[in-house]
Amino acid sequence: MHWPPSLLILLPALAAGQGIEIEPLWEGRFVAGEPTEVEVRLTSPQGGDVRLRLSGAAGSVEHLAIAEAGRPLAVALPAYPGPNGSLRVAARLPDGTELTDEARLLTLPERLSASVGIGGSQSEFPGQGSTMVAPEALPRTAAGYRPLGALSLPPVALAQIDPAQTRALGAYFAGCGRIELLDATPELLARIRAAAGCGGRFVQGTGSPIPGSPYPLPASQGLEPLLAAGEASPIRALALLLLPYPLLLLGLSRVRHLGPWLLLLPPAATLAYAAALPLGTVPAQALTWAEAEAGDPSLRFVTLLRLSGADGGGPLHLPQEAGLPLPRAGVPTRLHLDADGGLSLPLPEGLLERQDHRLAGTRPLPWPLRLELAEGLVRIGNGGSGPSPGAWLLWRGRVYPVPALAPGMRHAVHAGDPTSDLPLQRLPVPDPGTALLLPLPPPAGLDERLRWTGWLLIRLPAPAASGGPV
Amino acid sequence: MSTGGRGGEVGAGPWRAALLGGLLYGLPFGVWLLAGLEPGPSVPDLLPAHRALLWSQALALVLLLPAVAFPSWSQGTLALVLLQALPWPLLALLYRAGSVPLEGILSAQALLLLAAPSLAGVWHLLGRIAVPWQLVARAALQGALLLGLLAGPGPLAGGLGL
Question: How crowded is residue A44: how many other Cβ atoms within 10 Å of its Cβ?
């Protein structure tokens, strides 16, 4: 189906925003309910800090960029357009000038197929769900790949992209993104497959069919019970915190000599409670569910992040490795993109007010564990340079404990070995097959106010794996 | 103020009564507030609990006006102020919950604190009227205040700007 170009409305810079423009990715197309990426371009007559705010109905992103006087500035930002696709950027230049621009993206019902063309070739809207871009137009953030269902590119394009594009493309590879490498040599194909997630089966050569999708990661509803299981009741904590006051009043009522000094008690207790009330409640909790296939160099994850207003402090800082916040149904996402690629999320203001965020991303696998299925046994080997933690092997519907493995060590689990209980109430994914479940350490640089729990499932791919359930 | 022996007991009487009275009406509100503090995506609506607490504070003030002279005007009035102030830690909880703005809490409590000595003063002045009319005047004052309160916490809260 062809969409007439007139339907792709990219508003030109408004009269008020002559010096700023929004350049969307993928010819202005995105998938509803997903973030995307836009490039904000401006030129400031004066050097210094430029405050950017990119707003869409599904969320807003703030960023502090540094402009050089008279030189064009281009900043790639994650964007959260709403169902109507409209975006607005506002920039405050070092001299106080405010610039604005607006754009309207085209919402697609399903993910886009993109081809990378060399020589600046552009598609002529060959179809609603496909586009052709030049290598320099590839995304620079993980958000830019969210609208994509498949990417077709020649290996020569890999040499024409900048480091930020390489990192974003690497994350797409690691996240089991579907890629067709045009005219790639078998050696190059093998190297890229080895670096990709899901055993590299979503990276194919010219004309080879690409499997549908990787095993889906759990939705927020699947992670909710696991997060709640480790959650202490904040009401109970508050009740325990408040209890000493009536007990003190009761005790004082039995004191023989009472007097006007009692008038100091209520204000003192009020001030003490106002200062101490966050005690016993947790300002931020995160539960990460990560998956990889045996032999993968990286894992892909989804995190349910729960923020509460218990802290009363500043925003919560998350490193880039913590993932990209996905749009939330009905509640706009609000975040600040730090200069190092990390994020700051504002905490709610009311005590016990709660906000849930869902983040997704990829990370290097902390332990390159090998998993082999043999006749009546499963062999697990640690091929890394550091020890792996104790784990649980899920095999034939049973759970077997696996000890911590030193580098180079191997362990075999036989069908008759003693079993153990699952460390979780239940798995958030159906039928993991033969898999290893391990506790996942948090990414470095996490805000110390965040209570973090992570689980990693390393799956043994089925012999004729074709992508698993879609 | 007497100290020791029976005199000490008498001197501590209004303070003890204020402590127990504060507990009596403060505890239910504590339970109400905690029950309304269910964690969720939005700020809990605890404004009704705050209004009811103000109403209870005002009611306690009106009902205990006849006791302000015991054992002395100053002690009785201060004990009445203590009774008003005892549930304040619950207001800290209300404020941190984000349900009621700080200005609303402070202005309402300031008005109540001013009302306690003012009404005690009026009660004292009415005591200077000759006996048959003194009873009438005090009963009229208390009755009028009670009628105002019985109109409900809504008008009271409205009067306090909440």
Answer: 25
